[in-house]
């Protein structure tokens, strides 16, 4: 049996493609975690954010939405998911491997803080996500916990120097997406 060859396909930021991508996000993430569709669409069209699908040319197995970060010449992943019917098949690790090839200098992303989970199942899910990223070479930043738009998050990366960045750095990432200084208001450090 021939092994499938996976690659990243860049999402062309047309209105219909943004709508399809947003529908995937609605299936895979809680609504509170999502950027409004018009913000996502604007950022994709202006090139502030980029979106890719993990595909074999026939089917879309997963996707990631990210922005380039000049401060460390890497990428900040806002959303990453494998389509539900393909989860548990190693495609999440393949997607991470492919994303690493886009950014030789590093990846930064957020995960929900397991210490702030709402119940045992939520705690287990959050911990499972962190363990997935750790298996794929990322580590938790021990120095920063942020509350972003009322969601407690931890930062993970595969870049050692990223631990040196402070809350101002994270606020700038959000301000770039929103195009307003909302990060200064809605991104706070917590202990």
Automatic annotation (TrEMBL):
<keyword id="KW-0808">Transferase</keyword>
<keyword id="KW-0012">Acyltransferase</keyword>
<dbReference type="InterPro" id="IPR000182">
    <property type="entry name" value="GNAT_dom"/>
</dbReference>
<dbReference type="GO" id="GO:0016746">
    <property type="term" value="F:acyltransferase activity"/>
</dbReference>
<protein>
    <submittedName>
        <fullName>GNAT family N-acetyltransferase</fullName>
        <ecNumber>2.3.1.-</ecNumber>
    </submittedName>
</protein>
<dbReference type="InterPro" id="IPR016181">
    <property type="entry name" value="Acyl_CoA_acyltransferase"/>
</dbReference>
<dbReference type="Pfam" id="PF13508">
    <property type="entry name" value="Acetyltransf_7"/>
</dbReference>
<feature type="domain" description="N-acetyltransferase">
    <location>
        <begin position="8"/>
        <end position="160"/>
    </location>
</feature>
